[in-house]
Amino acid sequence: MPNIFEPQNAPTELSRACFDFSHVAGELEESRKRLSAVFDTVQVGIVIIDAETHTIVDANPKALEMIGDGKEAVVGSVCHCFICPEQSGHCPITDHGQRIDNAERQLLRPGGDSITIVKTVARVKLYGRDHLIESFLDISDRKRAEEELRHSEERYRDILENANDLIQSVDAKGNFIYVNNAWKRTLGYSDQDLASMNIFDVIKPCCQSHCATMFDQLKSGARIPRVEVEFLAKDGRSIILEGSINCNTSDGQISTRGVFRDITERKQMEAELTQSEDRYRKLFENAPEAILVQSGGRYLCANKQACQLLGVERPEEVVGQSIFSFVHPDYHAMVLERIQRIQDTGEPSPLREQKIVRKDGAVIDVEAVSTGIVFQGQDAIQVIIRDITERKQVEEQRRELNSRLEKMVEEKTRHLKEAQAKLIQSEKMATLGEVIAGAAHELNNPLAGILGAIQMLRSSALAHPIDPELMEGIDVLESIESAAVRCQKIVEDLVRFTTQARCNFSDMDINEVLRDTLEIMSGPFEEQKVKVKLQLDPEVPRIEGDFVKLLEVYVNLLQNAKSALPNGGRIDISTGLVKKYGEPLQVSVVIRDNGCGIPLQNLAKIFDPFFTTKPAGKGPGLGLTVCYGIVKRHGGDIDVRSTVGKGTEVTVTVPVRQHKGATNQAS
């Protein structure tokens, strides 16, 4: 179809008229050419549509480009195939009488897709017919940009609204332009509150002067990389914020943007950490116990007590030293095991005793407990050490005292048992003494009568001539007399045991008594090959005693010792002075043999009258009984200890001085 702006065949009358107005035709031609040039070159799509038929009668190159088809396919087609999606009879211009002026529409393309355009429709008369001139501009790029901008703004807003940091924008007067949800959530203010508030309403008074100065610096172009400020929450809480602020100028208006992070909890933790570190430092320095921190086998620090414990003047003498510098070699393995256990399990090492070596070489006892800590950013072990040297000494002294006390208790218990046994023995002997005294008195009279009768019978027999029968009778009388004399001797020994016997006390030397005793027993000892060792203490004082009776005691005891050594052996005799608290001085005589010993069941009976382990006819068994009585009348004691197969030890103790009452009574 020819360009609508090209000249058409006009009637003859018009030609004649134009001929009359040639200058007007020339201007029209120039105008036509200008319009044609604009139509062809303008970067806006233009189509001319027959308003009656809705047929596209012309389209400029830009319109064809936007439609995406050639002029042959476009011109002559119904407009709703490309320009308007409405069907026939529903044209918004011709059918509905609407006006389209810079309205956003969709331009249809042959491929079925569309592009967004801004369209303007105008009605014109061309060649006597109504036409629609539709111009449209491709805004798809702008729409895409707007869509991307919208998405970007949504993402930006989403970031702002969902950020954990507090974000705010404030104008030059301090009025709030924008705050995000985190800001409102943290400080507790609503949008209604912020509408009537100024930034200085939320800044804590102590920070307002600093913030005002900072705002002035921002306005003058200064850059402030880091800000720390305290805001007041709606409920009165103080919120510590850390962040950055920058200045923004838009349309001549100055505003500030701030991004903050709530560090209130961190500040509290830092304050608590500082307080904790300060407490730890003071505790470390002033602790009554020695504290050492070590890592990698070397000491990192030491407190005052540790320096005092190790014998150094300054901590610098310890820091950097090997942990084994002060550990006793016997405990190196234990220390390594303790460190390995802490590193493996993380659990503290229990309290353990060990020894350390001070700087001066002294070895002291300590007890230590270790635990894993973090020191100056590295894993370390803290050791708390306590000097227990004095305690160990006290414990050792206590053990010694307990041992001595136990021995004393055992000794006292033994003494009590011995005293009890002696008391029983004494009571028994006293009772026996009374019985024996009465029995001796009753026996002496019959024995005297028997002996008298024997004398009379012997005299009468001797008066007659001697014959064998008479001699036999005299022999019988002599046997009877011998038995009676023997009984009389036994009665005499029993009488000597009783209290009726008397001791003649005089000043005497106990060592001399023992020497005389050995002279008496020297012959029997030589015959039986018994060796005697005499250890007499020359410092032993003279005593008040009966020389003869004590001599009898020691002779009797040595005879018993000799009897325990049938195949020879050894007897040790010693004297000594006995001093006991609260008791008078005593002299002791100890006779010890290495013979057969006395069985335990016989030990309690040895002082009983007539008790003997000798065969019948070898003695009446009154020797120790008499000895017991003599020693008791001297105010002393006799103690016998014996172990079968090892020997017997007899200890005789007598006081140096006799009580006056006892001496007079004995006299």
TrEMBL record:
It is an enzyme of class 2 (transferase). One of its GO terms (cellular component) is membrane. Residues 225-275, 350-400 form the PAC domain. Residues 31-76, 152-205, 276-346 form the PAS domain. It is found in: Membrane. It is a multi-pass membrane protein. InterPro entries: BphY/WalK/GraS-like (IPR050351), HATPase_C_sf (IPR036890), HATPase_dom (IPR003594), His_kinase_dom (IPR005467), HisK_dim/P_dom (IPR003661), HisK_dim/P_sf (IPR036097), PAC (IPR001610), PAS (IPR000014). It catalyses: ATP + protein L-histidine = ADP + protein N-phospho-L-histidine. It comes from the Bacteria. One of its GO terms (molecular function) is phosphorelay response regulator activity. SMART domains: HATPase_c, HisKA, PAC, PAS. Residues 438-658 form the Histidine kinase domain. Its main location: membrane. Keywords: ATP-binding, Coiled coil, Kinase, Membrane, Nucleotide-binding, Phosphoprotein, Transferase, Transmembrane, Transmembrane helix, Two-component regulatory system. PROSITE patterns: HIS_KIN, PAC, PAS. Its EC number is 2.7.13.3. NCBIfam families: sensory_box. PANTHER family: SENSOR HISTIDINE KINASE GLRK, TWO-COMPONENT HISTIDINE KINASE. This is histidine kinase. It comes from Geomonas paludis.
